[in-house]
Amino acid sequence: MQPSRRFFLTGGRLFGSPWTQFVQRLGRSVKGQVEDISESGGPGQQARLVPTRREDVMHARALCAENRVKLALAGSHVARDEPVLWVDPAQLTGVEELSAGQVRLAPGTPAGELRERGLAPVDPAHDDTALAIWLAGLRDHEVDGLLNATGGLVSADVLLFDGQLDNLGLFGGQTQRPPLGLALRDIVSELFRLSQRPSMQVWREQTAWPARYRLDVLWREEPNLAHLLVGAGGTLAWLDTSTWQPMESEAAMPERRSRAPQGAAEVDFSAWVEVEVKRAFDPEWVLAPLALRAS
Prior knowledge:
Blueprint: H1 5-10, H2 18-29, E1 33-36, E2 46-50, H3 54-67, E3 70-73, E4 84-87, E5 95-97, E6 103-105, H4 112-116, H5 131-136, H6 140-147, E7 152-159, E8 165-168, H7 182-195, H8 201-204, E9 238-245, H9 264-281
Parallel strand pairs: 2-4, 3-4
Antiparallel strand pairs: 1-2, 5-6, 6-9, 7-8, 7-9
Helix pairs in contact: 2-3, 7-9
């Protein structure tokens, strides 16, 4: 561990404000690097963690929940009206070859690995971006390009709001998968309830989905729960690992285009979806929520 300067100077003693104590406790419980960046002119109370192992993130989640600090994926666009701990997965790298050509990747693995292996259409400009940050930050048209490709993201192991690790993947009557954990069972039940509300019918008939959380993937014949993480800003669960399979044919990068201005109905619906899906995944709002975006 490379402790922050403040932690080094205090010799590990806990004193000062609740925020100072939070940073010190975090520094003592992880092996990665902790830095209090609120001292360098950033808005509000902010700290940065560069974990070197999965357990670092698990410790951070627990401390964030206890101290009312929002855990946020580094580089994501989240609301910052409360203290925030930015977690940078850059040191959590690794590639594991699986059967049938599938590959399991750690969250800090460079996104360019996906393109080089034919797993996803990654813009070369993002080759060095951590996979978790790239996946969470995809824009509307980029999300469509990934979700509509044959192959690509198969499943994701995630750390949920309550500290449990579980797996998001294909879900349906013909799908063979381990039983869902208790927390994920409740999450999935609520998500399907939301997707089947009568008020959703009008959006089934539209050519474009207006919200950033892709609840519409649940309308597919064989929905993949991992696809809910795409473009979600890391605000629903922490991506621990993700499994990918080659695309049948090389997918071209989606054309860059601006989203058409939303009407009032779309804005209201989008905001409702984002609150309800967030509440389903993270009822205690341990992870920072999405920042509002202009219509």
